[in-house]
Amino acid sequence: MPSAASGYRPLLRIPGATAFFLSAALGRVGIAMTGIGLVWLLHARTGSYGTAGLAASGFALAEALVGPQLAGLIDRFGQTRILPFSLLAHGLAMAGVLTLTAPVAAVATACCAGASIPQLGALSGARWAHLLRDGRDDELPTAFSLESLANASAFLVGPVLVTALGAAGATPLASALATALVLGGGGALTLQTRTAPSPARRHAEGLRTEPTLLRPDFLLLAALNLAIGLYFGTMSLSVSAFATEHGTPGAAAPIVAAASLAGLLSGWLYGLRRPRSPAQRQRSPGSCGHRPPATRLSHRQATRLSHQRATRLSRQQECTYCGFA
């Protein structure tokens, strides 16, 4: 069991853990770059924010709608069998975005790119749950804190990188780099078969007793994630509007960056804590006394949440964030 002194190192010393974690982290930077990269690329090409916004929103909407369905296929057939097809489709779609000049074609291929982009963060989380089964469930909070740090870092670094390249006039390079990171990280993850969880169809009998996505506890958890996404998305917009209204628009970027860095630090520290009470008795001070629905599940049930559910929650929060940022 990792202690506060040892931090995350015991997790990363698990055979194969560092490799799949870094692969997914690399790909997540590309995912964070793709949406805003479309805005820069298509605005530079067409001169229209309307076309650029339509392509970016189509990308995000397709990702949100098709992502859970793709996740269901991964649950059923396994990561290493479905991921290559997803990466191939995403690569072809992004190639279309980069080469097709007609606005309608660019929007259509952007939607295809969103529908086929793999959720590498959810894939990495599923691998942690697979590796830490059989008596190591208490290490999952630390592993998921590490995943949260990787996700937050990706959405801090990715947009900054795209903005820098776009401001320098290299908008095609920004989108090409985003695609290369997604394909490179996803391809590396595909090759790591030892840490991949078994397909869910091998455990069909056990899956019949799993709660459905319409379970009230899960719906409440989804609503809470939507609220969190709205908070993070509108906060950056509010800071920018406030700074602009007071005649200091340049102050918005360092304020948002400071808040993001503070979030990274708090997430890192949270992952180091080792709660003495069981998961069912833990409370979050920030939840105003509300009991998180996930704690109503047994710890074993919580660790067996499928990749499909993890993807649905992550897509809901990320797309909410991207829609308001």
Q: SSE layout and pairings?
A:
Layout: H1 9-12, H2 17-46, H3 49-77, H4 79-99, H5 103-116, H6 120-131, H7 140-167, H8 171-191, H9 204-207, H10 216-245, H11 252-272, H12 299-303, H13 307-324
Helix pairs in contact: 2-3, 2-6, 2-7, 2-8, 3-4, 3-5, 3-13, 4-5, 4-8, 6-7, 6-13, 7-8, 7-11, 10-11, 10-13
Number of helices: 13
Which percent range fits the helix content? over 70%
What do the pLDDT scores average to?
77
Distance between the termini: 38 Å
Low-confidence residue ranges: 1-5, 204-209, 283-325
Would you give an account of this structure?
It is a single chain. Helix 2 (about 15-45) runs antiparallel to helix 8 and helix 3 packs antiparallel against helix 13. This protein has 13 helices and no strands. Helix content is about 75%, strand content about 0%. The model is unreliable at about 1-5, about 205-210 and about 285-325 (pLDDT under 50). By secondary structure, it is mainly alpha-helical.
Note the main attributes of this structure.
325 residues; mainly alpha; 13 helices; globular; disordered N terminus
What does this entry show, briefly?
Helices cover 73% and strands 0% of the residues. It is mostly helical.
